[in-house]
Design a protein that fits this description.
This protein is α+β, with helices and mostly antiparallel strands. It folds into 2 domains: 3-45 and 148-217 and 319-359, FAD/NAD(P)-binding domain, CATH 3.50.50.60; 86-143 and 219-316, D-Amino Acid Oxidase, subunit A, domain 2 (D-Amino Acid Oxidase, Chain A, domain 2), CATH 3.30.9.10. The protein has 8 helices and 19 strands. The protein has helices at 13-24, 58-78, 97-108, 118-124, 147-160, 204-212, 285-298, 347-359; strands spanning 3-9, 30-32, 49-52, 83-85, 88-93, 114-116, 134-139, 142-145, 164-166, 171-177, 180-185, 190-198, 219-229, 243-246, 252-254, 263-268, 308-316, 323-326, 333-337. The strands form 3 sheets. Strands 1, 2, 9, 10, 11, 12, 18 and 19 form an 8-stranded mixed β-sheet that branches. α1 packs parallel to α5 (147-160) and α1 (13-24) crosses α8 (347-359). The longest helix has 21 residues, at 58-78. The chain starts with a strand and ends with a helix.
């Protein structure tokens, strides 16, 4: 049985980021993926993810500028366009907790922002029909990450620097030892790694709970995004329309015209329906109906019937906090989980943190 310097389980955003940094450090990691790279069954696929300085958590807010720098470095190395800057706009009542916490986090990190009164907001952004009491929190450092291209670019750069990628290689079992870990694949093949990173997204707790000897109580939920045709494209040009988040009911988020000409992407998060990650990805009709009603009520120049729906999965801890750690008894094993909903923008930085955990 060959020995690998580092084995990484899961080639989504986190796993590819860890492989990218490990390969650049000369570790020649082995990256295992149970499906094909870029598959649409987990949480890292799709054409766009929001990235923004404006976060309600001060620590997450602080980390974001470094992620921007790392994404720009990857752009230069890969020749890919990965990050489009549009600015961000958060909308809701002035006393809404999400807006208040975001202001405090921005101020704690000395990041500029602007509060827009209800009258100014209405005049500046005629694409939205909002309650008269709502204000806007506007921040310039935000935009869209091209998720599919980001994952592919990290994997390609990892391979270019000596990493190996094995697709269609599902892991059945992990057996830790004092100096490494034995990985048994679904077909019975065994691999041995001196160090191990587990970044398996919706499947992470299947590996982590036996290793840790306790439940992580992570929820996997079905989610979906919808693409709506616009009848007034000037209102949703990325030069004039930022990425946007409704901090109060209907709690949706969306993008200007970025992925497909004449269409905007909007989503309404599903907070209730948990799922098995191996279940077929089914469109939730009730979610589509609620989202269409919200679009009809709050958006100008948009046809409120979506032309396409894409599905994905969230994996979240009870407090929606990220898990980034190493095993207390086997410090050569690190893991990352619980990122869905807001984690993709952090992948390139957390991949580096996972490597740092194993190097400490």
């Amino acid at each position: 049985m060959d020995t690998e310097n580092l084995i990484i389980i899961g080639a989504g955003g986190m796993g590819c980021a860890a492989a990218y940094h490990a390969a650049k450090a000369g570790l020649k990691p082995l990256l295992l993926e149970q499906f094909a790279l870029g598959h649409n069954l987990g949480s890292s696929h799709g054409g766009s993810r929001i990235t923004r300085y404006a976060n309600p958590d001060a620590e997450e807010c602080r980390i974001i500028p470094e992620t921007f720098r790392l994404w720009r470095t990857l752009e230069r190395e890969s020749g890919e366009r990965l990050l489009d800057i549009t600015g961000s706009l958060m909308l809701g009542p002035e006393e809404e907790t999400f807006l208040v916490d975001t202001q405090q986090a921005l101020e704690a990190n000395r990041f500029d922002y602007e509060l827009l009164s209800a009258a100014t907001l209405q005049a500046a952004y005629p694409q939205f029909r909002l309650p008269a009491s709502w204000i806007g929190l506007q921040q310039a450092d935000a935009g869209k990450l091209a998720a599919d291209r980001c994952v592919a670019a990290m994997a390609e750069q990892a391979i270019a620097n000596g990493a190996q990628l094995r697709e269609n290689s599902a892991v059945a079992r992990i057996d830790p030892a004092s100096q490494g870990a034995t990985i048994t694949l679904a077909g019975g093949e065994q691999l041995y790694g001196r160090r191990l990173i587990i970044s398996a997204g919706p499947w992470a707790q299947r590996f982590l709970e036996p290793l840790l000897g306790r439940s992580l109580d992570m929820r996997v939920t079905r989610q979906q995004v919808a693409y709506f045709p616009v009848t007034k494209p000037a209102l949703y040009d990325p030069e004039t329309c930022p990425v946007y988040i409704f901090a109060a009911e209907p709690n949706l988020y969306g993008f200007p015209i970025l992925e497909y000409p004449g269409h905007i992407k909007i989503a309404l998060e599903n907070e209730t329906e948990t799922t098995d990650p191996d279940r077929p990805r089914e469109v939730m009709a009730a979610n589509v109906e609620a989202l269409s009603a919200a679009v009809a009520r709050h958006f100008n120049g948009v046809t409120p019937q979506p032309e396409s729906i894409q599905t994905c999965l969230y994996t979240e801890t009870p407090q929606r906090q990220f898990i980034v750690d190493r095993h207390q008894d086997f410090p050569h094993i690190a893991f990352a989980a619980g990122f869905s909903g807001r984690g993709f923008k952090f992948t390139i930085a957390i991949g580096k943190q996972l490597l740092d955990l194993l190097s400490d």
